[in-house]
Design goal:
The complex is a heterodimer of chains A (305) and B (330). Chain A is mostly helical and 305 residues long. Chain A has helices at residues 9-12, 17-55, 61-65, 78-109, 114-128, 131-145, 152-176, 180-188, 193-222, 225-228, 255-264, 271-302, and strands at residues 68-69, 74-75. A two-stranded antiparallel sheet of chain A has the order 1-2. The longest helix of chain A is centred in the first third of the chain and has 39 residues, at 17-55. Chain B is mostly helical and 330 residues long. Chain B is built from 15 helices and two strands. Classes of the chains: A mainly alpha (305), B mainly alpha (330). At the A-B interface, helix 2, helix 4, helix 5, helix 6 and helix 7 of A face helix 1, helix 2, helix 3, helix 4 and helix 6 of B.
């Protein structure tokens, strides 16, 4: 037996063939995993780059503020853009209060019982309902039963039901980040549940709630299926640059529905206008999304407790 | 700490005591108004709290009530579920949804063949092999993928992926099951990645430490320890991807080509990915705008919608129960 002290230090730490084989298989695995995720991200990058490149020739200020002309094949997208703002604003006016209050209920009032479990299940399933089923619900409930007809308000109500779970989940998470000791301090000076929520809990979680609302905006702006049968219309005469062209009792154009129509049903559509419309919609949605992301990251960094 | 112990005792009494104090300062009417406001706000919050249950129930009841009368209009349950001819506008209309279900199944399977392996690989990469900075970047990119609206994905499939498919396969048209499968697969990736990453994150660090203490490499640890431990969570991730794929509407409507004929040739059960298919979602979306309210076709679409609702409901419920089971154990 040789004394361990006689073996040179280097030899003690030399990898055996078995170890080397394992490390090699690990390297192969990491390369494969990276390639797999590249296979997801590269198409996204290619698509976005292609979109921008083909859209640029048509993307001018005129394109944004002008109305469609010559059966959609010329002019711009102004009525659709304003219509999308209508749909988003109205649906948010309906969904934000309900969603925020529901989030407050789930985090502040709900005990750990069967009702809470059922509510949580309902939230998960509501967010999993296919968008076309929301459209069917919108037709049956708002268009036909409430006799709203195909109108902006019927479509917005349908969208509101659809984005509700986004707001509920975000609010719940934002509220649960507020430490319990804040509430206890407030209760101890004699404040009621609602006073505590209004003066302590909400101000301390407003950033997170806002993130959820912004995400809901981006979701509502991109949706097509729920509005195409409840209130979106192919074409409407609108003055160029008019900010309030629609009444909520009539149908309105929407950017997403406009993109669907011109890419499938309009013959001789110039390619660059198609791509420009798609790009405007993507930028609209991604802008809201990145605001939400930035907000969330900054809030996490700035947290005071 | 004594303070936390007393505070939890005083919580229930808080509102009543504060009310008494205010009554002494401002008078009885102020107190009444103030209690009423408190009562109204709490009531409103509770009402909104159950709103999600109300809406889910309302959605199901509404579409079922609009759809069920179809079965009393001379087209039985057998024709609806067991035949494959969907010709709603012909002289003798027939409503068999079998071909539509096969179409939905084909697109979903193709999408999952893409989304599950690639999504789970990305989840493993993000949760186990990345530095913090890279991880945050990748997660933002995944969110970007999730944020692109489905009509834009449809546009991408129609105008950008379609010609590529024609060039590489020599198919007659670029809109087919393969196109929709790839696009829906890309759309389902974000949910598979985020739920898969949650599942891997839920495995306790002691498992990882034990594996590394035995001399396992990272990859061995992932394969032999993390995968078995996170198995049900990864399954839930795949299921949620399936739920997303079944319910996807606009992208499928634009990419499948919408041929309602049975994509399977009679006795030879083989679905060619380059054949054009019609799915349940796309059929509803393309026909709902043209039907007369209360008519036969209208009722059939609502019944189809109820079937779709139930399918996604079951898939999502199963996935949710699995996820909840994991959280409960942790």
């Amino acid at each position: 037996m040789s004394d361990p002290a006689d073996i040179p230090a280097k030899a003690l730490f030399v990898a055996t063939p078995a170890v080397r084989r394992r490390l090699r298989s690990q390297r192969v695995a990491v390369v494969c995993l990276s390639l797999a995720s590249l296979a997801i991200f590269l198409p996204l990058a290619a698509v976005l780059i292609g979109l921008v490149k083909k859209a640029l020739p048509a993307l001018t200020w005129e394109f944004i503020v002008d109305v469609p002309r010559k059966g959609m094949t010329a002019g711009g997208i102004w009525p659709a853009l304003v219509g999308t703002l209508y749909f988003v604003t109205l649906s948010l006016l309906a969904a934000a209060p309900i969603g925020i209050l529901a989030g407050i209920y789930l985090n502040e009032f709900a005990r750990d019982n069967w009702l809470t479990r059922v509510i949580n299940l309902a939230v998960v399933n509501l967010s999993g309902v296919p968008s076309i089923v929301h459209a069917l619900f919108g037709v049956a409930a708002f268009v036909i039963m409430l006799r709203w007809g195909q109108s902006i308000r019927a479509a917005s109500a349908t969208l509101a039901v659809m984005v509700l779970p986004v707001i509920i989940v975000a609010t719940k998470e934002a509220l649960s980040a507020v430490p319990r000791s804040f509430r206890e301090a407030c209760w101890n000076v004699g404040a009621t549940r609602w006073q505590t929520i209004r003066t302590v809990v909400l101000p301390n979680s407003i950033g997170g709630i806002l993130t959820g609302v912004i995400l809901a905006v981006s979701r509502a702006a991109g949706e097509t299926a729920p509005i195409m049968v409840t209130g979106a219309i192919f074409y409407k005469v609108v003055a160029r640059g008019d900010l309030f062209p629609y009444s909520i009792n009539e149908q309105g154009m929407a950017l997403s529905y406009h993109l669907y129509q011109i890419s499938r049903n309009v013959p001789n559509m110039p390619e660059s206008m198609l791509y420009a419309t798609a790009l405007v919609l993507v930028v609209f949605v991604l802008a809201f999304n990145s605001v939400a992301t930035v907000l969330r990251v900054r809030l996490r960094r700035r947290k005071k407790w | 700490m004594a303070s936390t112990a007393t505070s939890s005792l005083t919580v229930p009494a808080g509102s009543a005591r504060a009310a008494h104090r205010l009554a002494g300062v401002r008078g009885v009417w102020w107190r009444r108004f103030w209690l009423l406001r408190e009562w109204a706000m709490v009531g409103l919050i509770k009402l909104c709290g159950i709103s999600s249950i109300l809406f889910v129930t309302a959605i199901f009841l509404f579409i079922l009530c609009e759809g069920l009368p179809f079965l009393r209009m001379g087209h039985g349950i057998h024709e609806f579920f067991a035949t494959s001819d969907w010709y709603p506008t012909s002289q003798n209309p027939t409503f068999g949804i079998l071909s539509l279900m096969v179409g939905t199944g084909a697109v979903t399977i193709l999408a999952m063949l893409f989304a599950v392996p690639f999504g789970l690989a990305t989840a493993v990469l993000i949760s186990e092999f990345c530095s913090r900075r890279v991880r945050e970047t990748l997660k933002i990119v995944v969110e970007l993928l999730a944020a692109v609206p489905s009509v834009v994905w449809g546009f991408i499939g129609l105008k950008m992926l379609g010609p590529v498919i024609v060039r590489f396969t020599g198919a007659d048209t670029g809109v087919n099951a393969l196109n929709a499968g790839l696009i829906v697969g890309l759309m389902s990736v974000p949910i598979v990645v985020s739920i898969g990453e949650d599942a891997l994150r839920a495995v306790p660090d002691t498992f990882r430490e034990a594996a590394e203490a035995l001399g396992a490499t990272r990859w061995q640890m992932v394969r032999k320890v993390l995968f078995p431990a996170a198995r049900s969570g990864l399954l839930a991730a795949a299921l949620l991807g399936v739920g997303r794929a079944i319910g996807e509407t606009m992208a499928v409507l634009m990419c499948t080509g919408q041929s309602i004929a049975m994509p399977i040739d009679g006795a030879f059960p083989y679905l060619h990915p380059l054949s054009s298919v019609g799915t349940m979602t796309a059929t509803i979306a393309s026909e709902l705008g043209e039907v007369e309210a209360g008519g036969l076709h209208y009722r059939a679409l609502f019944l189809l919608g109820s079937v779709l609702f139930l399918m996604t409901f079951i898939v999502n419920l199963t996935a949710d129960l699995i996820v909840r089971g994991i959280r409960g154990k942790k």
